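Q: What would this chain look like folded?
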Amino acid sequence: MKYQNPIIPGFYPDPSAVRVNDKYYLVNSSFEYFPAIPIFESEDMINWQPIGSVLNRKSQVDLKNTYGKSGIFAPTIRYHNGVYYVVTTNANVSQGGNLVVKTTDPHTSWSTPVCIEQGGIDPSLFFDENGKSYFMSTAQKDGKDAIQASEIDLNTGKVKNSHYIWFGNGGKNLEGPHLYKIGHYYYLLASEGGTEYGHMLVVARSKNIWGPYESCPNNPILTNRNLDRYQLQGVGHGDFIQDINRKWWVVFLGFRRTVRGQFHTLGREVNLLPVEFENDWPVVGNDNNTARLEVHTNRKIAQQKSLSIVDQKSAEVGKELFFLRNPDLSKYNISSGKYILTTTTQASINNRIDSPTAIFTRQRSFKDNFSVKVDPQNTQAGITVYQESDQHYDLIVKSISVNKYQIQVRLVIGPAISVFKTVEIEKQRLQRIGISCTSGDYLLYVVTEEGRINLGKYDSRFLSTEVASNFTGVMFGMFVEPQRENGKAMFSDLIKKSE
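A: My prediction, written as structure tokens:
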């Protein structure tokens, strides 16, 4: 049988997963976007559906001053004695640190965060057979990367009996630790090489939770770092998970390059490979510790479904729709497939600090098409293909007379902001505005009564992670510009198609 990676396409990095009875749950980093920490559910580990976001109340998370390399990242999800736990790092400059939230039902709200005394990033939890709970994160010891573990009281966030349990396998940026007890051994899974082209998964084991840990002789157990011909690159930051048939798998991140070469736009995505144990060491996949997009396995797996069309009736905040940083929710009226956005005088999508009046959804394939109807009133509004505040392509609609719209293509690439193309269309003729994608370009267009008018193809490289130096991926967005207070725009008939 075979399936296709990624199993969750689009900007969903740093996956962590857990099985509870016959259901699987998976969480991801979200960085500067709110609600934070998207959570998925699956019955087969192949097909996943979003069920919401873990941090979905403004009282749970402050994203002020965050950007594409800060905010909420590297969550871990675990289950113990009827309770689901998520630990994560809030890298907000003013509110940094590790935190834990919990719930008895991941479909409902999660608790108020409890701050954890231990620093570092990429936190993780482990519940041992002796009833004790352990917390792990990255650390530095005598100038070396290390994994630090401590006993933790999850009600208070206090830790004790702290140890540096492993110093890695020799690669840079030791991170993403996860601890498991399998058979007679404690296994410590981690990443090295940096979350770029040198990324890799490494593992160590010990019969004592505090070590010493011996490195796997076959490390790295997963990497594509020397396989330039592979489209899938940067594989690492993974989490082992055991299925209902007691077979082991690993979920991990990786990115797909565009046809332009050493560039990727979709962000880091969720991939899956089977794991076997040989001589009490994990062996990932069946292709010499490498990851391919098409995976063949002799295990019984579910049929993989294609991505669905997201239309105005099914897109929900916290599942498909997200805001930047700390949104002023009074500026949004979302109901019955209509999105009414009210302007402020504070922020535009070019602003790196504040929250613009904008709604975003992830690009999930190289053949996505995103389109919507828009009616700006006393303002200008539009759609964007957005990597970060100074890297996005926009299609802006503004009224220039009672009967006429002006439509602009605006390119924002670093400090350069230019209006590349302008057309005028009678209001009654305009039906939709849209963005269609290829692996190498973004095509901006409008649809009128007479048909589609293409407004140019624009190179995807300038919206890539390599140019942005970001941890996020491309999003599509609807926005209003802060021209005057209380201007409004209504977006409707939203359609996003992914292949």
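The mean pLDDT is 93.
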